[in-house]
Structures are given as structure tokens and as C-alpha cells.
Write a structure and sequence with these properties.
Layout: E1 15-18, E2 23-26, H1 30-39, H2 65-76, H3 78-83, E3 87-91, H4 98-111, E4 116-120, H5 121-130, H6 140-149, E5 152-156, H7 165-180, E6 184-189, H8 193-200, H9 202-211, E7 212-216, H10 222-229
Parallel strand pairs: 3-6, 3-7, 4-5, 5-6
Antiparallel strand pairs: 1-2
Helix pairs in contact: 2-4, 6-7, 7-9, 8-9
Length: 230
């Protein structure tokens, strides 16, 4: 657990040492260091397409300020938001910029030194299935524990695939555990809450409703527009 203490309280070890009494106590940064250590096996890399996203660049500057404003407010105060367990749910049609906005938040969290895991739901379910393979580097419980411990879990395309009963229970287990531990969640979905409840279950959507501020992302399909212009 290396790296300087963001609060300038310890020497980077995660412990504050009292030289006079020869005792040590946990530094304020220790939970964050533990979270980052647990998250190392997770996907915490901004995809190449989104590495240069910024609030002052296209396509974000071309979006309605009403949509962008709560995202910017969240990103500007990301550590406080994560400490409070707050989250965002981006809802809207295909190609309207939901993932771009979500990546801005994940990028801000990483830049603030917080642990982040970024997955599309299909990929996450694949990773969970692989834990049952012989020789898997992760146990099923171990991967679930990491998904719960990370400061910010970013799930893309929620409700995008036909899910089995097993997949629905896995998703509920992750979201419910984060709900109970007051851990932040960022999700994107093409489905309005009622349709999302039909796809992933009302229990899961009920947790999301309480955990996340809903950000409707409306507009035209920017991917189709870019392709047509070319």
C-alpha cells in the first residue's frame, strides 16, 4: 500500500505512528488504500475511446447544460460523493452520451485516488461465470467481495441482455451489498425504470432508485450522426 498520504497524516504506510508512546493507529487514508488493493484485480482502466473525455470538449460541450450540470457537480466533489455513498443513473436512448458522462465521473474518481471498477453488465457476468472454471485466479466469493469493496462500481448497459435467474441473483447480490455498505454506483441503461424492473427485477431497481440520482440523457443518436457525416 504505497503512495503518499492524501491527507498528509502518515508516511504512506496507512498508519500514524506516535513516537513517544511507540503506538500506531489507522490513518484516515487506510480504508482507501485497502480498497485500492482489493480492486487491483478488477477492471479499473478507462477504455481508450474515453480517455480524453472532458467537460470542455465535444461531445460534452454540445450537450444540454441541464443534463451536464449534475454530472459536473458530482465529479467536482467526487470524494465527498463517494464517502456519502451517492451515485448516478444515466437513462436514455442509444448514442445520446450516457457512457461518456459516466466515464467522466469514473475518471474523476480515479484522478482523486479512489478505487474504481468499470464493467459492462455482460462482461461482468462473464467474469463471474469464469470463477467457476478450473484454475480460475479468483474465487466466486472473492470477486464478489472486491466488487462490493471498491469505492465506485461503474456498470454500463444495465438491462442490455436477456438474463438468467442466476444472473439476476448475482446482480441483485452485488447491488444490494453495495446498498447495505453505502458504496457508490454509476450505471447507464437504455431502459426507463419500469422496463428496467421487468428486465432485472423490481428488487434491484428499488435499490438503484434509492442509491442513484437519475440523470435522463435525451437527444439524437450521436454515433449515427457521426457516421452519416462521414
Amino acid at each position: 500500500m504505497s503512495g503518499p498520504c492524501p491527507y498528509e497524516m502518515c508516511d504512506g504506510s496507512g498508519f500514524v505512528v506516535d513516537a513517544e508512546t511507540k503506538t500506531a493507529r489507522d490513518c484516515r487514508c487506510r480504508p482507501e488504500r485497502i480498497g485500492r488493493a482489493r480492486a487491483r484485480a478488477l477492471s479499473a482502466v478507462i477504455p481508450r475511446r474515453y480517455r480524453d473525455v472532458a467537460f470542455d470538449r465535444a461531445p460534452v460541450v454540445d450537450m444540454d447544460p441541464v443534463i451536464v450540470r449534475p454530472v459536473r457537480r458530482f465529479a467536482d466533489n467526487v470524494s465527498d460523493q463517494l464517502d456519502a455513498g451517492e451515485g448516478l443513473r444515466f437513462t436514455g436512448d442509444v448514442g445520446t452520451g450516457k457512457t461518456t458522462l459516466a466515464m467522466l465521473v469514473s475518471k474523476a474518481a480515479l484522478e482523486a485516488g479512489r478505487s474504481v471498477a468499470i464493467y459492462s453488465l455482460p462482461r461482468l457476468l462473464t467474469e463471474l461465470r469464469r470463477t467457476f472454471d478450473e484454475g480460475s485466479r479468483h474465487t466466486h466469493v472473492g470477486l464478489l467481495d472486491r466488487l462490493v469493496a471498491v469505492d465506485l462500481l461503474h456498470l454500463d448497459d444495465l438491462g442490455a441482455e436477456n438474463t438468467t435467474a442466476w444472473a439476476l441473483e448475482e446482480l441483485y447480490s452485488i447491488i444490494n451489498s453495495r446498498y447495505e455498505q453505502q458504496r457508490s454506483l454509476i450505471v447507464t441503461t437504455n431502459l426507463e425504470p419500469d422496463l428496467l424492473a421487468e428486465q432485472i427485477g423490481p428488487r434491484t431497481v428499488s435499490r438503484l432508485n434509492e442509491m442513484c440520482l437519475d440523470v435522463p440523457v435525451y437527444g439524437h443518436d450521436r454515433r449515427t450522426e457521426r457516421f452519416s457525416a462521414a
